[in-house]
């Protein structure tokens, strides 16, 4: 039984089954089969933004079939083009096909994924996640830049993410018709 991250060979590819068997405290993701260490506890700014988005999405989705779920929550994405299985923990995800929600997490692509960047996120990691979400069929993807107070928004067109214009005052979901939230509400009470 794996009880410590140090017991893993980080150059080896792993599977969903392996991931589920690990019994250690460190937070990790599985990106195309390879272990990726997650940042330590997020900052208060990160958590405030997450809470603001979670609250607004949750309120909007009341009595609708979609569910919004916040991290830590595993999303299991199958191997694409033989590149290895993926387990990610997006900051927020919206799942409209609730049959994908299982005890251990979401099996298959969520409809909307929101990642809030932390200082520990590398460009390589975010590029890799962008490609993973795109190939998995995530319909809408938001990348939140907390300190710039900007959200990059992408919509899946065919099998390719298309960048949408950057919202200045209000951000609107392309997927969740009628959902919009003021940028000031999202970035309210940012802690320096």
From TrEMBL:
It comes from the Bacteria. Residues 18-183 form the Putative restriction endonuclease domain. It holds the Pfam family Uma2. This is Putative restriction endonuclease domain-containing protein. It comes from Emticicia aquatilis.
